[in-house]
Design a protein that fits this description.
Belongs to the MAGUK family. The protein is of the alpha+beta class. The protein has eleven helices and 23 strands.
Length: 443
Amino acid sequence: MESSNVTRVRMVQFQKNTDEPMGITLKVTEQGKCLVARILHGGMIHRQGTLHVGDEIREINGVNVSNQTVDNLQRLLREARGNVSLKIVPSHRNSPAQCESNLVVSKWKGQSISLRINQVFDLQEIYVRALFDYNPEDDDLIPCSQAGVSFRVGDVLQIISKDDSNWWQAKKVGTSPNSTDPAGLIPSPELQEWRTTVSSREKLKENAVHCSWFGKKKKDKYLAKHNSIFDQLDLVTYEEVVKLPAFMRKTLVLLGAHGVGRRHIKNTLITSHPERFAYPIPHTTRAPKENETNGKNYFFVTHEQMMKDIANNEYLEYGTHDDAMYGTKLETIRQIHVRSQMAILDVEPQALKILRTAEFAPYVVFIAAPRIFEILPHHKSKDVNDVSLEKLATESDLLEKAYGHYFDLKIVNNDIEETIRTLEQAIDEVCSSPQWVPVSWVY
């Protein structure tokens, strides 16, 4: 018999006395062979170095495993205890493969999908902030849900491996920097963006139903303002971040539904701490009233000058009221920073596209609307009614859904004084502690 036809078989044995997963995922070929699909960094098998990607497992504790489902195979490994023996046919590769194939075929919502893998990444020490919630138990695409890492919006993940361009290996960054927990699987940006694109029609229908709370006139006004960026925001996945020593944030951005109390919060902070906080004086094209001084409450400019400055992208945002234009110039924000003060902005969320840079270094706080059942018992005013509160809560929920991945902090404004105290404490803490910031702020 020629040596090329000889199948090399070897036995692998190790002790498994705990519930710790082995840290591998398996796949079954069309011929019914069980192959090692991936090895999770830091897991039991990775630490032992006993298996490699592409190895064929023929027996587990003497039981032939050919023609079994992946779920059954993973269960056999998970439930194994004591002395575990595997009969394997080693992969013929000289080095670990980037991935098993350049084509991954999976089932999702009854559809057969193919995702081509065409990238190999050079991985250094990379951290990302999750911009969406993820639960592997709810994922129909993940090869093994037990191998997945669950996370919420805002969680920081250390990327361990990008060898598979559909399923990255990552660890959630916690309070223990030297944690030895093994890595797990998370969807890559490419896979998550594909998934989001497939679901986009369902999400648009859902948004249309939610917006119906406003009534037609309110809905059209709201969607005209926000719909153009809903589609872009739907595709967010991860944001690369870096940890910096404590530093002072330059700008406090207050987001929230109209009428939620942002103006009162802003004015209270400036009145209580005038040496620390300031609000950029707006520009306007209206004529000054009697006793109004240019540069005190407003900067008065001509319509032509304001239109010219808008064309030159000198305004953060602007609008029209009673036939006059009003706007916030970026230079007025910069002048507050020059005075070593924190600029307070209660702006529309679209302004974050300009503000989320190292120049403005914003701390973004979302002031959420109180729930009706929490606020009504404390308010006897005839101005407070179920309908207005319900509309406020609905708009607040829509804003959080669309922009929540940008929030550094969320405060539910059940009590305005308590909200202000919480905000003051949070600002003190963030400016005196190490911070995760977008990598674009540094490099």
